[in-house]
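Q: Two folds, back to back.
A: First:
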Amino acid sequence: MYTKIDKNGDIEVKRPLSKAGDKVVLQAEMNMRLGIAACSVSESDCNSRKCTPIRIVVAD
């Protein structure tokens, strides 16, 4: 999703700038814990108001 915050601090959830199949690769430099949350989609244009799957791969 693409979250836009205006100068008054108002938050608006917009259509994502990413496309299906895009990815983010993170590399931990130390032991860590990672939390992943699915934002509500029924109140915004994110994912055309539909829940879609995500793929998470943890590699050593």
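A: Second:
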Amino acid sequence: MRFTAIEADVRAMVTDPRWTALPLQSRAHAIASRALATPDGGRWIFGAHARWYLQDPGDGPAGT
């Protein structure tokens, strides 16, 4: 998926009224599962404050 498609998907997901009822771990997994891998090995996650964040390898694999 491209950045704009993932961004739209995440925005739709978090504006769904059921989003706030999910446990935090489930929400974190849902966001992490939409990480975008780039050819240079970067993993980008669209998250807080409607911004893109580059995953720090020290944080461990996305989705865990």
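Q: And?
A: The chain is about 35% helix and 15% strand.
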